[in-house]
Amino acid sequence: MLDYAGGFTEAVAGLADYENAGLEIVFVPEAYSFDAVSQLGFIAARTKQVQIASGILPIYSRTPALTAMTAAGLDYVSGGRFTLGLGTSGPQVIEGWHGVAYDAPVGRTRELIEICRTVWRREVLNYQGKHYTLPYPGGTGLGKPLKLINRPVRDRIPVVIAALGPKNVELAAEIAEGWQPIFYFPEKAAVAWQAPLAAGAAKRGPELPPLDVIAAAPLAIGEGEATTSLRDLLRPHFALYVGGMGARGRNFYNDLAVRFGYEAEAKAIQDAYLAGRKDEAAALVPAELLEKTSLIGPEGYVAERLAALRESGVSTLNVTPLAPTLADRVTAVEKVRALLG
Fold this sequence. Notes:
Layout: H1 8-13, H2 15-21, E1 25-28, H3 36-46, E2 51-54, E3 57-58, H4 64-77, E4 82-87, H5 91-96, H6 105-120, E5 127-128, E6 133-134, E7 159-162, H7 166-175, E8 178-180, H8 189-202, E9 212-221, H9 225-228, H10 235-244, H11 252-259, H12 263-274, H13 278-283, H14 287-292, E10 295-297, H15 299-311, E11 316-321, H16 326-340
Parallel strand pairs: 1-2, 2-4, 3-4, 4-7, 7-8, 8-9, 9-10, 9-11
Antiparallel strand pairs: 5-6
Helix pairs in contact: 4-6, 6-7, 7-8, 10-12, 11-12, 15-16
């Protein structure tokens, strides 16, 4: 996962080294930052083998047809290496930054993906949905059904849905090639997500491959306190999401912490964060949560955590090496590849 806050060109310059170390896919996020699409195109031009993925494009920020066009274009310039990662983001960004209503996230995601797949097959786009109707029924009345001019590299670009809530997770298991949760805790994953994953899998079409489960984890391999103390660097990040994303009663990450069994801690973190006591909120993040959602520690410990991830169903590992230099970060990726076998 590349950082959307800065250092992008420097990170891309090191991708060849990561590829040699065994890197297979790179994700580019999009918040209220530089857009992900231009950066993905830049990566496509600078690499030859690594897969590229949006991680994620918010479903509300582009029309479904534009999302389909964009994915087809990125797949074209990368020679068939693109994965379309989609997600709902949250009301703060969608309504505050994009100025559109944050409504019907599950229904809109389903319809957007149906429209994308219609476009990629170069079928005439005539879609009648609850949330999207194409051609537009109002306006001038001059809209007509169209189909994509270009011939895409693939008529079925892989789609990954970033999802936490039960309904969105169920949707991912039903219709997407992949599912990307956040703060993946392998020992608690079944408690949080087993039921919606099973419900979605029961409706999954035979044309789809097994669901790719993509788990993210910060990575640092080494002995002693100097390594394990890196977990504390994650505290502000967890506090921001559990305490400050959304609002009280409308925070998906806080809800996830509750499903993980940290109800009291989640409330305390949110209370402190919303009151402006961010350092206190960070200090309240449970040590177990930091430990079990990361790959930080001695090599033997990291090997145990990799086994736990694999056993829980993870099939793609999205790591963020925490080492200070590129050489050290590449070495960390090499070690993970060796441990995975």
